[in-house]
Amino acid sequence: MSPLRIALFTHSVNPRGGVVHTLELATALTALGHDVTVFVPAVQGEKLFRLPPCRVVYAPIVLPQSSTVAMVEARIDAFKRALIEHEALSFDLLHAQDSISGNALAELKAKECIHGFIRTVHHLDPFDDSRLAAWQRRAYEDADQVLCVSETWATEMRSAYGIDAITVPNGVDVERFKHEQAHDDATLRQRLGINRDGGPIVLAVGGIEARKNTLTLLEAFAAVLRVLPRAQLVIAGGASLLDHDAYTRRLLQRAAELRLSIGPQESVVVTGPLDDAAMPALFRSADVLAMVSLREGFGLVVLEALASGTPVVASAIAPFTEYLDDSTCYWANPADVDSIAAALLRALSAPGSSGANATDFEHAVPALLARFNWTASAQRHVDIYRRFVAKHAPVIN
Fold this sequence. Notes:
The chain folds into two domains: 5-171 and 373-392, Rossmann fold (3-Layer(aba) Sandwich), CATH 3.40.50.2000; 174-371, Rossmann fold (3-Layer(aba) Sandwich), CATH 3.40.50. The protein has 15 helices and 13 strands.
């Protein structure tokens, strides 16, 4: 079969889960021989945190971003202008990975500038602002086909919204994250102020957000410190388009109340956004990844941590329960501070902890990682793409 000309759309140049998914998918599709272009909105001078081996079109953002609504609108407009400029109808397939690009494609579809589009829903967010909520809804309602990265969200889309969604899982680049000490690990730890006094490291990836349950994790970590006083919590990442300032202020206030110091070489380190190249070393430096989110589309960092040889404490909720079990993670109730603390202590094999069970890195973890690879994900996408193209091909009289 002839190669497809595919346009993928992602909302940000920053390392968020959906953006990583887009770039890994673009890489895998390119390796399969398809002609891929990634569209991404950017202010002047911005570049993607990781460049895929395909064409990248930066859609210039020209409007001021005085609010979240204005920011979203500016990015929708940027996508529309860029796609029109690059001849939207010349692509066989247009695939949006988020609500922002989904709205741009929905508007172009309504104006008959494109024949249709596919949308991947990673997860949905609750919005108090009616316009943001409407944009999120339109991005999946107007799509011609909806994909989800977990069966949890595919089921949610079908049962709650009447959308016939197809599950197409993520993958993980095992070679990038495989467990082997690199010469720059110690340099990274020193630069970030990690591993004070040689104590165990609890890592959380994704920044400080309500959805990531960071405040509850902080409470649990305070309990861990009572057993392991040299432990350190590292909160990494946090490049987000949404406003999490109020939640961050709450966390900082609670840290002060708990007498938890924040800063390099302190009990809590908040790194902010990191270079993509630093992430494998950061995973290797951790003794456990705490992934105790309240809501996730899939939780890709879980696979990345396991590929790095790092045990995981995960929320005992879907979608984690779809692909993890007792041999590949330690479970915690994300709403229960004591449950999270106990799971962290089991993972760290702390003295006095009970019910410790080692993650099976010899058999169960390799089997899990083998189930999720980007080549298989890309091929699954291509099968869906070809059916879509056959169904939506223009009729020539």
